[in-house]
Amino acid sequence: MPKLPAVGIDLGTTYSCVGVFQHGKVEIIANDQGNRTTPSYVAFTESERLIGDAAKNQVAMNPNNTIFDAKRLIGRRFDDATVQSDMKHWPFEAFAENGKPRIRGTFDVSVLTIEDGFEVKATAGDTHLGREDFDNRLVNHLVQEFQRKHGKDLGQNKRALRRLRTACERAKRTLSSSTQASIEIDSLFEGVDFYTSVTRARFEELNGDLFRGT
Fold first, then answer.
1. Which CATH code, of 3.40.50.620, 3.30.420.40, 3.40.190.10, 2.40.128.110, is assigned to 7-103?
2. Of the candidates 97, 103, 142, 210, which lies 20 to 30 Å from 72 by C-alpha distance?
């Protein structure tokens, strides 16, 4: 009997992807945009619902109606301390319904078999840890740096935070292959330009406990 291919699905907090193991190797399946990962985002406009890359690409212009990080809410109550902490970083609103959080990647792994249905064979990991955790550390660090340099608190401005988060995510990716990344954002908040840099060593220091926990 020929061996059936094994399919792996990573429903991540920030990005999702699908891979198939066959012919002795893993192949990542591209989405309809040709990308090997798909942002775990959904957005709502007056006329349509956007998913993945299309949703993430318009987040700066439509932050209140663009949902991400939703996986963090699974199995938690609205008054959970982690939910309340996460909500401070979201431009969209969450509310309580029967004690559960509702809205308009965690680091976890499950092994399943597919034979007359799905059967979970094993699961492990930190279901609350995702890429956004690392981004949040850098965002918070730069919010403090901006206030220290310019005497302005951008922490309550959703659009400014979204632009800063996008720049932090880009810098994080750069640091995976370089020792330093530049962050340049024109007119970030109240007309003030923000130019700074972050080293890989500093990023690792900000996220040291998260790295050790994995």
1. 3.30.420.40
2. 142
